[in-house]
Design goal:
8 helices; three-stranded antiparallel β-sheet; four-stranded mixed β-sheet; alpha+beta; globular; about 15% strand
Length: about 375
């Protein structure tokens, strides 16, 4: 029987795969190479990684899945790479105590691995090769976005230009009514690359609901916060001389009241909705909205929280990278849908299920609400 991950066809052309992996790697390298000396030394926090270690991990992942096929008995180009850079076995806290490795040697490792991939792409690809190449491309994409998240949290300059710029949202408290709907959630084989937590498409019935046409705004959230106390103020906000500002990387900008509020943790979004006698949408409800005509609702350009825990669909089985989804089905993660300004276009799929723990306020996250 053909393994699930070999059924994620049709695959992009070899030319497109070549372009995508080269551009993703080039962006990763540029982020690290443009990091000012000394800025790679970051505090040991649960939401951060040492940047040079993260770069090494990304290269290790590239080599491990494309060229070593996920098998430790196949040697790495880099001595002790498995012991140093495998995020599944190197405890998060231990990443700060790994002896410093020169950036030059890590860049050389990256270059050597990319050269091997170029050779592979010059020959006919098996379904498995095509799968692993796409897995690695998306791994680059997610880590590049993670660098943007980390740079924002550290107040560093923006590491690369956003793929999209948030548009102003017209906030008129409009709700879109959905009648009782039979829908499907999840993905099918033979529809292109997917992640294992999307397996498999299944039918479900969504009861009638009403969902806001736009995400909660800075102005709306500020009113909520001011009615509480200063302790609830988002850390990237400040008030000076009668003006509200919000920080975007290393710059303070005058707050745009009509922009969707960002960097809001799940727990605060739930509290806001509850205080307004509203609720967050479920994964199915937000998926239904995002599947409708884009002229009928306002995209927030943020990952949007749902009230759905990140759990497997019935019949889930892990793909070769077992630690992508399975370890996180513990009830402490919530599903988010949508995208951020730093999410590359190929990752902006309706079926993609992002997931984070509820206290995260560093990600580019917002939320919209449903009537009770």
């Amino acid at each position: 029987m053909t393994s699930d991950h070999c059924q994620y066809s049709p695959h992009p052309s070899v030319e497109l795969l070549t372009q995508q992996i080269q551009s993703a790697n080039t962006l990763t390298r540029s982020i690290i190479e443009n990091l000012a000396p000394g800025k790679e030394l970051v505090p040991q926090l649960a939401t951060l990684n040492p940047p040079h270690w993260e770069f090494a991990h990304i290269t290790w992942f590239h080599e491990f899945w494309i060229h070593r096929k996920g098998r430790h008995e196949h040697p790495s180009l880099y001595k002790d790479a498995d012991a140093l850079f495998n995020s599944s076995t190197v405890a998060h806290a231990d990443r700060w105590s790994i002896p410093p490795v020169s950036l030059e040697s890590l860049l050389r490792y990256s270059h050597e691995v990319c050269n091997k991939t170029s050779e592979l792409l010059s020959k006919p690809l098996s379904d498995e090769d095509a799968y692993f190449i796409q897995l690695v491309i998306h791994h680059y994409d997610m880590h590049n976005e993670a660098f943007a998240i980390m740079w924002q949290a550290l107040e560093y300059p923006m590491p690369f230009q956003p793929y999209s710029v948030s548009t102003k949202t017209v906030f008129n408290n409009e709700f879109i009514e959905f009648s009782k709907t039979d829908m499907t959630l999840g993905s099918l084989p033979q529809q292109g690359f997917i992640f294992d937590n999307e397996k498999w498409q299944h039918p479900l019935t969504v009861e009638p609901f009403a969902i806001s046409s736009s995400a909660v705004s800075n102005e709306q959230y500020r009113e909520f916060v001011l009615a509480k106390d200063d302790q609830a103020m988002p850390k990237h906000w400040k008030y000076e001389a009668g003006v509200w500002y919000e920080r975007f990387f290393d710059q303070w900008r005058v707050m745009d009241d009509q922009q969707a509020v960002r960097h809001i943790p799940y727990e605060d979004a739930v509290e806001y909705a509850s205080q307004q006698h509203l609720r967050l949408p479920t994964e199915a409800e937000l998926t239904l909205l995002m599947a409708t005509n884009r002229n009928d609702w306002q995209a927030s350009d943020l990952w949007e929280w749902t009230s759905s825990q990140f759990l497997p669909f019935e019949g889930f089985t892990p793909d070769p990278y077992v630690d992508y989804s399975q370890p996180w089905f513990d009830g402490t993660y919530q599903v988010l849908k949508g995208w951020s300004p730093f999410t590359v276009e190929r990752m902006r799929r309706l079926g993609f299920r992002n997931f984070y723990q509820t206290k995260r306020n560093d990600i580019f996250s917002g939320f919209r609400v449903c009537r009770l």
